[in-house]
Amino acid sequence: MHELGNRSPTRVPMPEQDPAARIHNFLEVPLGYTPDQAQEEARRCLRCKRPLCVLGCPVGIDIPAFVALVAEGKFVEAAQKIKETNCLPAVCGRVCPQETQCEQRCVLGKKGEPVAIGRLERFAADFQRQHAAADLPPKAPPTGKRVAVVGSGPAGLTVAGDLVLLGHEVTIFEAFHKPGGVLMYGIPEFRLPKAIVEEEVNYLCRLGVRLELNQVIGKSITVDELFEQEGYHAVFLGVGAGLPAFMGIPGENLGGVYSANEYLTRSNLMRAYAFPEYDTPIVRGRRVCVVGGGNVAMDAARTARRLGAEEVVILYRRSRDEMPARAEEIHHAEEEGVIFRLLCAPVEYLGDENRRVHAVRCQEMELGEPDASGRRRPIPKPGAQFLLPCDLVIVAIGSGPNPILTHHTPGLELNRRGYIAITETGRTSRRGVWAGGDIVTGSATVILAMGAGKTAARDMHTWLTQGDGSWQGPRAGG
Amino acid sequence: MSRILEKRELVPRIFEYRVAAPRIARKAQPGHFVIVMADERGERIPLTIADFDRSAGTITLVMMVVGTSTMKLSRLGAGDCFYALIGPLGRPSEVQRFDTVLMVAGGVGAAPVFPIARAFRDLGSRVVTIQGARTSQLLFWTDRLASVSDLHLVTTDDGSAGRPGLVTQPLADLLQQDGGRHIGCVYAIGPAMMMKACCEVTRPLGVKTVVSLNTVMVDGTGMCGGCRVNLQGQTRFTCSDGPEFDGHLIDWDEVLGRQKTYVHEERCSLERYIAQYGPCQTESPA
Fold first, then answer.
1. Half-sphere exposure for A197 (CA within 13 Å, toward CB)
2. Which pLDDT score, from 0 to 100, does residue B70 have?
3. How many other C-beta atoms are found inside a 10 Å radius of the C-beta of residue A55?
4. Is any Cβ of chain B less than 8 angstroms from the Cβ of A246?
5. Cα distance between residue B283 and residue B272, in whole Å
6. Which residues of B touch A216 (CB under 8 A)?
7. What digits encode the pLDDT tens for the residues A378-402?
8. Which of A353, A456, B119, B126 sits CB 3.0–4.6 Å from B95 for a disulfide?
9. Among all residues of chain B, which has the CA nearest to that of A240?
10. Cβ within 8 Å, pair A177-B228
11. Mean model confidence pLDDT for chain A
12. Is A130 at the interface with chain B, CB within 8 A?
């Protein structure tokens, strides 16, 4: 045990913006540790001989090593240690659900609070960004192989970062005018500042990754053309799950009813929260209804609050225990005055004479037997409906696979639900084409996408440099 | 890329751009559109690809100034680049050989009609085009449309050129004269009210009518649903399932309603822009 170890069973508290103040701005809520706070927290780590935390990390960061460096005050080295495995530490430190991953395994969690690994990751990454021009890690000699990465979200950025260091020539193709994927359009500024995303992408560009924005693969160029006309040797598909889900209930097309994708893209990517300084408008509802219980629903609700809503209600058809959102996000939303109407689902939206939504008819639910997801199935309570007045509705019930790329890529096997079928190492049914992230799994997390990116990149490198060119795709029906 | 090679004002407030965009030009088909941004703070707005030159690597866009975004775009000229230009988006027009095709172009709709009319002509269809505008001063590309039509009729609301009145009158007359013998399909592209009115003329006659919707859009790739329309109970996205749809299946009242979602914001934005930068810089047409 470290002599200067911190025996406190509780973690160093994270300073946060006060809820009453923060609902009027888009600045981050957790303010970050100071160097002293970070060292104090890092010294709680027991330096276990068999660190369980590492097993909980989808990309296998050497957590004890970076935490030890923080404890010793070597903050830049700590960031570099993380970057050996995870090229987006400033992002992951903010958005990873550490409480179900590394921190859940921490032995300190048995009797007290686990080491605040996520907060330390964020601290190290932020410190390096603010104080040191990151030394570029050494790159392997050029392999002469060209790789096309489709999508600049977490999966694509990870593949690009890993392969460029291995000496390959990498180009990322991004459909939007700004890179980052969900990091840019999905997660709000107050959870993940866009300047950080841009900085992380700039780091990759300094490593030599080329970035082509405003290219929709499948439309301006197809995957076939990437091979045949543009000379790429391998392609990674990380296009995400960008197809908004609607419920198909009456009134869903009324003015003022948004998918969460649209609402968040307007606010986050197009900066509609700064309208009219930015030209894209967004409906600023006074009484807002958000449908759904995941992180996206929390993001939408908290954004609406910041855009001046007097009342924001989350409708979720199951109970609190079944909500998929991170506990921290639910907690922040509650602190900000978001109201939770649990065991409630919308059945109809009602509009005024201008076809704008002005109320939701809600159905009260109760929980029955578990369904396929293992969660108890919501069943409507007979005769229990009520009207909720609202002038803005955000439907945040999930996303599916956007078919633009898959429809224009012949021979790319999909599963029943339209996601790309892959092997354990990310290979698709098309020779030389890998896939990973939400376009494979359905909407999941940033870190899982990164893990998929790492797995694919490893296999891509092997195939490009040592492979005999043969290809084994996913088994039929996989 | 996305450099503007040529720009001219066709009629007051309607501008034509020829843009260097080799990848888009190679893939462009009639019916396709692009999304453009004037600058980093701009909106993403759709513009139909009115023409394309694959060997020169250029596309032609026609744009009418209505609000802040189109004002900003109208101030870009030859040598300038769009901040963003994405395409080709949407599903291309389903062009097949009909005996006769009736193309109805309302206002700035003349631009998207042009490449579709040409494609029908190239397949051997007889093309009859009705081109309407509010007044003669606002008619553009009349020679171009005439060059791809076997018969080209003009209407103006105020009677200053061609036949006085709306496009729906000659549409009704031609359909009646035809008696269902030769006209296999009607295309109607222009303001939503005009497209709706054309559909009401063709509906009792059961003539297939294709419209091209110009809904509000953000991404243009089917990821947000902002452009969604109701086609007889089925939700479709204008950007990825359209922009062309069977006009008889569309809930037009819903389309018109959704178009008004940001009327208040659009007005505020435009007033602010004009206060800062002045009104639309329009010269007299050459």
1. 25
2. 97
3. 12
4. yes
5. 22
6. 86-87, 89, 221
7. 999 999 999 999 999 999 999 999 9
8. B119
9. B223
10. no
11. 94
12. no
